[in-house]
């Protein structure tokens, strides 16, 4: 009898241990978007081989992605700064690796745009080199499914060197649907080739390669600027990188000893665009002691209201978040680079 009681206690303890481990560590197939970090852009940017050493900070802000376990899902209930997403909502049909590669492309594109916007504003010379078309996705029926990969850059098709994605698309449109094409591409800096047939594109009467693509470019300025964001991905640091680059190439002390944070995409002409997860970024910036937060003041058009009646733009979402956490950090609306620069110059 004693043996049975002891055995039952051991089995019971093991069962409880398994349940506890499962509660804390078993993936549910969902993810949590949570406040990330606020990073000083000066550590990522070098102009003429040098980092910015002036007092103060221009902070880019991020969101964190956490695997949803029963514990983290339960903990997130009622938390306005943690949002639950399914894998499909977060990544679409991409694998984790493909998702990260696309995020890295978005960051590269953001840093290129930042250089162009900053140098244009400062009236400094820069060049823009066309590298090819970047592969964002490959359809399941594509003959190139296991030949090309997300992250590859196509440089030529049938020895035709194109100058932009539109030229590439128009070339493919003119091909016979039974054509076999030869693709020159680069992967991890190495030149490669692949051949395959065209396939019917879903929802159209056309045939093509079955890939989603975008232009891949590289911007270089004088003096030379290098931006290396490491593992940080996505396009939302564009504005803050632009401010950092601009302050260095013009030798202007926009920070004036302040801790300034913000977010927003940047276009080469300086237009600031909206991003996701701004509430979490406000939270992260406030936690780092920022006194100013730049938020995209994207226009809410009639077309947006038609398809999304409850749409709230980034600036207003940021103000709501700041009110919830009772921060003294000032939320500043920006539509373009000039808005941010003018604010910093007037409030030194």
Automatic annotation (TrEMBL):
> Per its UniProt record, what InterPro entries does this chain match?
Lon_proteolytic, Lon_Prtase, PDZ, PDZ_sf, Ribosomal_Su5_D2-typ_SF, Ribsml_uS5_D2-typ_fold_subgr
Which Gene3D superfamilies does this entry report, sorted A to Z? 2.30.42.10, 3.30.230.10
Keywords, in A-Z order = Membrane, Transmembrane, Transmembrane helix
Which residue range or ranges hold the PDZ domain?
126-195
SUPFAM superfamilies membership: PDZ domain-like, Ribosomal protein S5 domain 2-like
The Gene Ontology biological process terms listed for this entry are: protein catabolic process; proteolysis
Signal peptide from the UniProt entry: none
- Domain Lon proteolytic: where? 234-303
Q: Which GO terms describe its molecular function?
A: ATP binding; ATP-dependent peptidase activity; serine-type endopeptidase activity
The cross-references to Pfam families, in alphabetical order and at most eight, read: Lon_C (PF05362), PDZ_2 (PF13180)
Q: Is Transcription included in the keywords of this UniProt record?
A: no
The question of whether Transferase is a record keyword is answered with no
List membrane-spanning regions: 12-32
Report what the protein is called.
Answer: PDZ domain-containing protein
Q: Which organism is it from?
A: Companilactobacillus suantsaicola
């Amino acid at each position: 009898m004693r043996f049975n009681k002891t055995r039952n206690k051991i089995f019971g303890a093991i069962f409880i241990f398994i349940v506890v481990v499962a509660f804390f560590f078993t993936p549910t197939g969902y993810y949590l978007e949570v406040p990330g970090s606020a990073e000083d852009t000066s550590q990522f940017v070098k102009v003429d081989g040098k980092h910015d050493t002036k007092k103060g900070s221009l902070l880019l802000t991020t969101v964190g992605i956490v695997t949803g376990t029963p514990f983290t899902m339960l903990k997130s209930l009622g938390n306005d700064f943690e949002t639950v997403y399914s894998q499909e909502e977060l990544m679409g049909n991409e694998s984790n690796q493909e998702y990260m590669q696309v995020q890295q492309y978005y960051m590269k594109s953001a840093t290129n745009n930042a250089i162009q916007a900053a140098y244009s504003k400062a009236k400094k010379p820069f060049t823009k080199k066309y590298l090819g078309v970047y592969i964002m996705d490959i359809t399941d029926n594509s003959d190139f499914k296991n030949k090309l990969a997300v992250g590859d850059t196509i440089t030529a098709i049938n020895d035709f060197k194109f100058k932009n994605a539109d030229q590439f698309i128009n070339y493919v449109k003119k091909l016979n649907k039974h054509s076999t094409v030869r693709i020159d591409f680069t992967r991890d800096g190495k030149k490669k080739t692949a051949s395959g047939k065209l396939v019917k594109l879903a929802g159209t009467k056309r045939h093509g390669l079955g890939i989603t693509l975008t232009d891949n470019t590289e911007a270089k300025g004088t003096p030379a600027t290098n931006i290396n964001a490491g593992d940080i991905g996505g396009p939302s640091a564009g504005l803050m990188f632009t401010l950092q680059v601009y302050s260095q190439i013009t030798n202007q002390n926009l920070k004036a000893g302040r801790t300034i944070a913000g977010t927003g995409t940047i276009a080469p002409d300086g237009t600031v665009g909206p991003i996701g997860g701004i509430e979490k970024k406000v939270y992260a910036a406030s936690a780092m002691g920022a006194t100013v937060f730049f938020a995209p003041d994207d226009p809410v058009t009639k077309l947006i209201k038609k398809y999304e009646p409850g749409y709230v733009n980034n600036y207003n979402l940021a103000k709501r978040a700041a009110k919830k956490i009772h921060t003294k950090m000032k939320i500043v609306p920006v539509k373009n680079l000039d808005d941010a620069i003018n604010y910093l110059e007037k409030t030194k």
